[in-house]
Amino acid sequence: MKQNCSLHSARDTNMDGIYDNSMEKMEIEDLCITPADETNQHLPVREVPSSSCSKTRRSFRPKLQATKSFPPYSQCIGGLGEDGEGNNDLTSELVSTCSSVVPDNKCEKSAETETKTNQIVKCSREAVKAKWRSRRKEMSWRSCDVDTGTQEEGRWCGKRMESVGKERKDEENEGDVGKHQRDKNSSFDKDKDEEEEKKTGTSSGSTVNMELMDTLHSKDEDPDGTNESSTKRHLILSRLLHSSSTSSSCSSINFSSAESDEVFSEGEDAASKSQNFKKSRSWRTYLTMMHWSLRRQSSWVQLAGHQGNFQLSKGGEVLKLYSEGEAKCLDSLMRDPLRPFVPQYHGLVTRGDHCYIRLEDLLSGLRRPLIMDCKMGVRTYQEEELVKASTKPNLRSDMYQKMVKVDPLAPSEEEHKRKGVTKWRYLQWRDTTTSTSTLGFRIEGLMMEDGSVQRDFRRIRTLAQVTEALLYFTRSHLQTLEAYHSRLLALGDALKNSTFFRKHEVIGSSLLFVHDHSKASVWMIDFGKTTPLPDSMELQHNIPWVEGSREDGYLIGLTSLTASLSQAINKASGLQEDSCVASWRAEQIEQLTEAKGIAILLKQKKS
Ligand SMILES: Nc1ncnc2c1ncn2[C@@H]1O[C@H](COP(=O)(O)OP(=O)(O)OP(=O)(O)O)[C@@H](O)[C@H]1O
Ligand SMILES: O=P(O)(O)O[C@@H]1[C@H](O)[C@H](O)[C@@H](OP(=O)(O)O)[C@H](OP(=O)(O)O)[C@H]1O
């Protein structure tokens, strides 16, 4: 044994967290714990009710002004929730309503047509609204009645989304090269994507001028500014999200297609074409290889927490710097009803001079994932910090600096004089200036599908603001929101049955929300400050903390998050309803105008 993993917490050690390609060097010497049951991984969760309108999704794509770039969502999420059947039903129903009201010969008199158009639009809008209302009712009923048995088994929600992913792929294969090559950061496409590229011979790295693509697609998506309300909404959010949005560490790659344009320019003879084709193929292969290797290096992202705490590993695992407390928690959790909500724990490993906890990589298998880290509980400091602060205060100048940077008036006169604050004071200030102490959780950071990361959510204090953030994070996608909601309800049930939860004070732990075009899930992570209670003690987790009670308010946070997701679901379905009506209306007007045109032509022909 190279290092005694249980001797000390190595958390303070600074490490470079850069991905080490030479995995062979890794010394797997201390597999202290048997690997977790693999069969528990990636089980699909029940299908969530579908209620989206594909057209609406295409036309409704909220934009956030403050962030640097957001690729069109249609391919990532817009196709999600495939509700083809339902929507077709709806559309065909409306079209048949329309055709029954509008006889074939009615277009001869334009004034009459206009009146009829208005009538149809009005009556059909009512029909659509009624339909949506009943759907929404059905949905909310269904989300309350979650099949927790299935949920507990399942680790991912939204199996239904996969078929749409397939649909999307078909669309891409039909020749829209641009769509295929949108991945600006190229960080998250994994083997699936690569295989796809190999098959089609198109590197997602080539022909990428993302900014142009973004512009084009954003025009596509909202040609006449019909998304005004959502834009406004997200402008509000962007104001909430302080200006410090930082770009992710993921590399971004821009490849030009110039070489292929040259190769296949007109007027070339077949021989030179074939020669050039060979050249271009080797060039393309080189680019693709480079692209893949870059992508592999940046396929994992650490959204929050201490820098240098993590290392990438192979086989869908991440390595987190060892701490005895966390390892013990994870060990217990593998035998607790909470297991399906925690990354699989595969024991310990020594790498170099350090010991690591081997964890399931929760991003593994996701394409361009969106991630959100919510730190749970009404406080993020342990009671011992408070005791330390009053008995042997250790002033932290780094924390004082962080505090002053945000609010120069926050430190007391004394703290200003000493240019230092205790850790407890700093953490408590963070808790009271964010939603932690009021809502029982705070958003620590989120990453969108283009790799852009936002970490400053200190202005988010109310439930309504959290709801806006959730709508932004999920792009108001109903099925994703519903999947998250169901998962939280299932987590709530598991927590009720968990001995681990009853017997531990859970501080500074996070819920990690991850989704892509086909899957969504929420996971409990970070048990570094989770401590077991004395034998006789149990916590309720849903009452305010008073010194000595050790209550953490974890369930207060879970309740707030669940409520906020419900609000977001209501808003998203309302938006879809309105947007669906609008797009149907536009379509009907277009059809009638076309019919009117044909009638005029016929009339002219006759005369
Ligand atoms: N198993 C995992 N799979 C994928 N990503 C993970 C996993 N565990 C952690 N992460 C990523 O790393 C980030 C930090 O994780 P974690 O909170 O465990 O670290 P930490 O250094 O202990 O944090 P803190 O400083 O808040 O105590 C998370 O926000 C998430 O982005
Ligand atoms: O997010 P911020 O504002 O940067 O503040 C950090 C955050 O609260 C961490 O949770 C905390 O680590 P622990 O959870 O381990 O206490 C860290 O303390 P540290 O500097 O002592 O590590 C703080 O600096």
TrEMBL record:
Keywords: ATP-binding, Kinase, Nucleotide-binding, Transferase
Pfam families tied to this protein: IPK
Family matches, as SUPFAM superfamilies: SAICAR synthase-like
Enzyme Commission code: 2.7.-.-
Transmembrane segments: none
InterPro entries reported for this sequence: IPK, IPK_sf
Catalytic activity: 1D-myo-inositol 1,4,5-trisphosphate + ATP = 1D-myo-inositol 1,3,4,5-tetrakisphosphate + ADP + H(+)
Gene3D superfamilies: Inositol polyphosphate kinase
Chain segments carrying region Disordered: 157-210
Top EC class for this record: transferase
Recorded GO MF terms: ATP binding; inositol hexakisphosphate kinase activity; inositol-1,4,5-trisphosphate 3-kinase activity
Gene Ontology biological process terms from the UniProt entry: inositol phosphate biosynthetic process; phosphatidylinositol phosphate biosynthetic process
Family label: Belongs to the inositol phosphokinase (IPK) family.
Name this protein carries in UniProt: Kinase
Provenance organism: Oryzias javanicus (Javanese ricefish)
